[in-house]
Design a protein that fits this description.
175 residues, mainly beta, 2 helices, 14% helix
Length: 175
């Protein structure tokens, strides 16, 4: 996992270094966006969880008028399905991703990100009856498309982990 993350980070640094020559001042150099998200689990993740929802914070640093380096974090909560013999409560995912956004037109953009996600699963403790949890960290990647409509920023993406993932719709607002 460390090798993949290091490779992605080195590629982003190299890409940033090649784009730093941009002198055009007609675009916003820095933006912060917040977003509400809805998610539909896929693969093995979809067998255990129905839906997910959360909030994200995304920072974008423009390299030129068409491209930007992004950083995204937030929290996604997934509601478990009713499975016989399994009594889980919820799963919280906290992603930390870096990425690259490229404007495909004046409005539409493509976005790819990679990083890691800290996942925490809550379940009732069998010995005390109280709430217990287990954590793990996994390599995370995502790709999607979105639209910059003034400050409004809707997007759809696939976010994947080692063996599963989800499709998410993000309704964002940029400052």
């Amino acid at each position: 996992m460390k090798k993949k993350f290091t490779l992605v980070l080195l590629m982003l640094v190299a890409l940033t270094a090649t784009k730093m020559y941009a002198q055009d001042k007609g675009y916003k150099k820095f933006s912060i966006g917040i977003g509400a998200e809805g998610a539909l689990p896929m693969g093995s993740f979809g067998t255990a969880y129905n839906i997910g929802a959360g909030a994200t914070l995304r920072i974008a640093v423009a390299l030129d008028e068409k491209s930007a380096i992004t950083g995204t974090t937030g929290v996604m909560a997934f509601i478990p399905k009713s499975l016989s013999g399994v009594n889980s409560k919820a799963q919280l995912n906290i992603p930390f991703k870096l990425g690259y956004r490229y404007m495909l037109s004046d409005v539409i953009y493509g976005l790819g990100e990679a990083g890691f996600t800290n996942a925490k699963v809550y379940f009732p403790s069998t010995s005390s009856g109280s709430l217990a949890s287990a954590s793990s960290t996994e390599f995370t990647y995502s790709f999607g498309v979105g639209a910059k409509l003034g400050a409004f920023d809707p997007s759809i993406r696939y976010e994947g982990y080692s063996s599963s993932g989800f499709v998410a719709l993000r309704l964002g607002f940029n400052f």
